[in-house]
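Box 3.1 A note on notation
Throughout this textbook, protein chains are presented in two layers. The first layer is the amino acid sequence; the second is a token string describing backbone geometry. Keep the layers aligned when reading.
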Amino acid sequence: MISASKPPAQAQDWQAQWRQALIEPAELLRTLGLPHLAARLSANAQASFPLRVPAVFIARMRHADPDDPLLRQVLPVDEEDRIQPGFSLDAVGDLARASERGVIHKYSGRALLIATGSCAIHCRYCFRRHFPYADEHAAGARWRDTVAHLAARTDINEVILSGGDPWSLATARLAELTDQLRPLPHLRRLRIHTRLPVVLPARVDLALIDWLGQLPWPLVIVIHANHANELDQDVAAAIARLRGTGAILLNQSVLLRGVNDRLDDQIALSERLIELGVMPYYLHQLDRVQGTAHFEVPDREAERLIAALRARVAGFMVPQLVREIAGEASKTPLQRASEGVP
């Protein structure tokens, strides 16, 4: 049984693990016994959106396998250099919906805070890979401007921490924000979107758990795993600690060609998530950001996949297949997935 009481001693210093992340693509390939793949690397992609991947995530990759689904998510390859029609720098319209620095208003009753631009891992399909984080993050001025804006918006009942990854900030910095949010009577929920429990499970340390346990609002934590191979025992232990806070745990993933576009991949991911106490929430169709076209799965194929998944697992294990469309009032479900697709 996995203990939810405290993290293992060797996992205490998550910041050291962060600093030791691998940042050279050729070194990553050598580590995995794949030096011959260096010909596929893109210097342009590396310069504009550099590789960053922690050693603990690399350890889950299959040695000498050029098709490893975790490697494909992080390796900057020449396919990213191809300019494709319909792919843009801001595919989901974040900048058009930004108001106060680092605050994005897209959906009724909710405010999304771009807490920071930092991430422990750089996912090649990231929909914010071109986002101007230096100008648009909420942590500046010790949260003062952000909180003042939210205090004036009494229609906002849910705050969503996003990024980058909000848990890349020190826990004390996060506590500064939530301490300032406490007096706002109209806030009813706090939601946190984070990939760190998956890519750097040591981040879920005693200080973080203590902070989460003292928050006054119902808490929803949305993690991000795309493949069952990401969810090893260290991740399972981190998730167990999060469950101990009483938070609702959900997972969102992105449908990616060559990563999780096979039925067996989706079954394994849903099974593993439920085993760990995490509900599959969203399966996103790819946001059409420049440099990501090689990951795209056509809608019709995606709909067949989700219909096949529904036929194989219990209904509560099937994530909702959605697309985010700039300017729409909510995520857009791909309806044919629920109707059965020939």
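The two ends are 42 Å apart (CA to CA). Strands lie at 103-104, 110-114, 158-162, 189-193, 219-224, 248-254, 279-284, 320-323, 332-333.
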